[in-house]
User: Which sequence fits this backbone?
């Protein structure tokens, strides 16, 4: 009995030691895990600090490289410099700048300002009353890089200089050509009074010019063949064209800038010498901003079964439209009236309402 009791005591002691060893091992594992987590956090902090230091070093190197390219401007040159270009930050800061400071921003940035709301639109118009701004095509635009952006929006917001890609002959370049033909193509057009005293759609703009125009295309004269001839169409001679006219109103409203109001006539089959369209009612255009809106008149050749060929076009500012029967001179893709385009024209009837 004594031996059994002693054996039982030994077993009990062994079990207690085993439990103590297990508990100590558990505490040691928890402590080791805590230390590992602390070490990991310290390592992450050290990596973040190292990254910040590396970024600071890189920024400092870039700053030093930029400073080496800075040339000291002489005091004499600074005294005779009229305009100073400064990066655009925000509208409030820009309006507070002296009038000798100007902004040069991309079309995409200006579109963001326009889409921000009427308040930002009007603030930009207000800035352009006392400052100059220059808009250039954006290389990040969703349109093809060779195409032009629409200059109507910058003009409607009071921008004085709008850069265009003159190697791309498209409808937007025709709008630019039409704007400057307003003053004899001298390269300068005075900003509308609405953008000096008021703004686009302001009471001054509404009183100054009519907002409702009805255009009726009557006939054409000496419309030349397009440079790229269309495929021969059944029943139509190869030497003749089947012209139709497209009227596109590019207005100063943000929605109208992206989607112009368009009206098209029917095609006159096989007659480019003196086609007659005989439109009875014409098309009525409601103009949001007559001071900057432009009507683009395009003649197309519908003789092709694949696509319409460009024949000629003309861009007429709404502010230059006159009521009555009017002759519209047409221009080729290079904006000239040479050769076969010397006498190309349309006869239209124009009615207006205030």
Assistant:
């Amino acid at each position: 009995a004594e031996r059994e009791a002693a054996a039982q005591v030994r077993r009990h002691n062994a079990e207690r030691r085993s439990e103590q060893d297990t508990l100590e091992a558990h505490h040691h594992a928890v402590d080791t895990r805590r230390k590992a987590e602390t070490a990991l956090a310290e390592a992450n902090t050290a990596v973040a600090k190292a990254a910040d230091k590396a970024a600071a070093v890189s920024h400092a190197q870039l700053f030093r490289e930029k400073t080496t390219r800075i040339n000291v401007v002489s005091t004499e040159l600074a005294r005779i410099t009229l305009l100073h270009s400064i990066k655009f930050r925000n509208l409030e800061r820009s309006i507070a700048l002296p009038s000798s400071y100007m902004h040069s921003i991309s079309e995409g940035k200006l579109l963001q300002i326009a889409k921000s709301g009427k308040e930002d639109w009007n603030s930009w118009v207000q800035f352009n009353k006392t400052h100059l701004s220059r808009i250039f095509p954006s290389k990040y635009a969703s349109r093809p890089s060779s195409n032009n952006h629409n200059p109507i929006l910058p003009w409607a917001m009071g921008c004085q200089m709008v850069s265009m890609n003159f190697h791309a002959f498209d409808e937007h370049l025709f709008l630019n050509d039409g704007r400057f033909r307003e003053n004899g193509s001298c390269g300068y057009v005075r900003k509308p009074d609405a953008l000096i005293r008021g703004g686009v759609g302001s009471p001054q703009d509404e009183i100054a010019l009519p907002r409702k125009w009805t255009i009726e295309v009557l006939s054409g004269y000496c419309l030349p063949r397009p440079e790229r001839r269309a495929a021969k169409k059944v029943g139509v001679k190869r030497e003749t064209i089947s012209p139709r006219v497209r009227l596109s109103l590019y207005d100063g409203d943000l929605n109208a800038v992206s989607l112009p109001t368009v009206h098209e006539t029917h095609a006159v089959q096989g007659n480019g010498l003196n086609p007659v369209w005989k439109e009875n009612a014409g098309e009525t255009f409601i103009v949001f901003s007559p001071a900057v809106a432009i009507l683009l008149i395009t003649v197309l050749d519908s003789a092709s079964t694949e696509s319409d060929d460009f024949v000629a076009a003309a861009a007429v500012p709404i502010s230059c439209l006159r009521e009555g029967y009017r002759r519209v001179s047409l221009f080729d893709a290079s904006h000239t009236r040479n050769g076969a385009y010397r006498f190309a024209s349309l006869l239209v009837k124009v009615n207006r309402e205030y």
